[in-house]
Design a protein that fits this description.
Layout (H helix, E strand, L loop, with lengths): L3 H5 L3 H24 L6 H22 L19 H4 L1
């Protein structure tokens, strides 16, 4: 389980990879629950929270609310457009 601060330091490709892996794990956990082989039912909730955390960080980046890390190490901040600038 990763914290939001740790996820913000990752680049977009790594976030997408983690999201794909978390969704696969959730699918497998649901399958195990359906077949009666799930040992740790709390893991399902933890994976769902991880998915939500990943989606939140990705959405914040799209909206320009948090800095996007660059390969050079310094984050480039995407400027959020104001309502007046859009018109």
């Amino acid at each position: 389980m990763s914290t939001a601060a740790e996820l913000r330091e990752l680049d977009d490709d790594e976030l997408e990879n983690r999201l794909i892996n978390a969704r696969k794990e959730l699918f497998n956990l649901r399958f195990q629950a359906a077949t009666g082989r799930l040992d740790n039912s709390a893991r399902t909730g933890a994976v769902r929270r991880d998915i939500a955390r990943l989606l939140t960080v990705m959405r914040d980046r799209e909206a320009g609310l948090i800095p996007v890390p660059t390969p050079g190490g310094r984050p480039s901040v995407r400027r959020r457009l104001r309502r007046n600038e859009e018109e």
